[in-house]
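hey so u asked for the seq, here:
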Amino acid sequence: METSNIPGGALRITLANASQYLVIALFYMIVTKTNILTETDIGTLSILSFLASVFSLLTVLALPMALTKFTSEKLGKKQKEEAAAIQKTITKTVLALSIAGFAILALSSQLLSQYLWNNPEYAILLILNFAFAFLSNITSLCNSTLQALYLFGKMATITITFIVSSRIIAIALAFLHMGVTGVIIGYITGSIIAITLAINFLRGKLPKTTTNMPLKPLLSFSFPLFVSSITLLVLTWADVVIINSLTGDSSLTGIYYIVISSVGTLSILYMPMMTTIFPALSAHHGLKKPESISNILRTTSRIIIYIIFPSCIGLAIIAPTALTFFYGAGYAKGATPLTILSITTIIIALNALFSTALTATGKTGQILKINIAAATSTILTLIALVPPLETTGAALARLTTQTIATALAAYALSKEIKIHLDKEALWKAALATTAMVPLLLTIELVISTRLTTTQTLITELLTATAIYAIAIYILKALKNQDFDLLKQA
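ran it, structure tokens below
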């Protein structure tokens, strides 16, 4: 339980997340290119994913985040008994809420099916979907406890176990003509396997206790995050729901869902760092060391900037080729939204960094205000842009919203600590990225007509990597401390 685990933990979680997105990419490649799931099926799957997110939101009340924060603070102060009591109290509360929520929704599944699809026959599918959401809540509790214990390698193992097992089973059942139902059953089976492994990892890590912590202070921390999560649900799903509602075209919804799922791959460039620095930031906040928090943010920003700039700009340029390679030519019509969302990811990464620091310092109320403003912006821009521009308008709405949210988060955090982003990394990464743009555009727009999709993608990846690496070397961007971090990892 030391902060020296952070570099190694970040690497493990990065590899786990990379594996996760690789498996998801292969999953969608297989189900789309073999047509065992149609564009309409994927649209249905996206709505089911939205409903599972709503279930988890309303039944966990953001308490897993409170579990990580307060347990890590108690462990930082060597108060293991109190840490165990917090973990026990939150686990019991979330399980009780999840059981009650599942029972209510299972009984209401036929009505919900009739409302969503004008067909009561989707009731069983909805029950299975909510069972998966219930198991996801348990997984979230396990991961939050492991995160508080700095057991990042165990978290990575759980992630890989779930994603591999669930998708393999889902594909097998889909090939047996079970469609979306088979996919959800695969998710459920993978969750059970991952939970079994997680419980084994946690055995004996915290002392047994009969003490229960008061729930009120935990809810005082988590409730603003819960309300904020409602706004995040709007930020994550509003475009999918509004596209589906305004266009009535499930296949268009399916294509856009593929696009946002694909751009989500870029989160492996920054989310592992958010996961691993959060308990450290919380511990330093508990010890009242704001200067240490500033230093962690600066180091993290340096790593993120050097990685995310070339990756996001590169994907923005090669979007048509990437979509065609992974999912087929029919999905290439999502290239413009993918380009916009790839660029947006740079802003999202900075927002994640600022929001993580605000959460660790207990400023959940500020996060709530920011997310309310962002959600309002999302709804307004979607209503204005989706009717004339459809999926492109939805992507532009996300870009607008994230820009507003990041500016507000930076302003709120600056009132608590000194924000030190690595300015040197910022301009050197931008310059090195700019160097690869002309040749990438040439390959995508001109040379690609003479190559196959696979040849084009490989050529673009190798070219971009080579140019960026050479530019970084010429600019002497990397320092000894960067290599020390790599050695430590």
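The chain has a mean pLDDT of 86. Residues 216 and 222 are 10 Å apart (CA to CA).
lmk if thats what u needed
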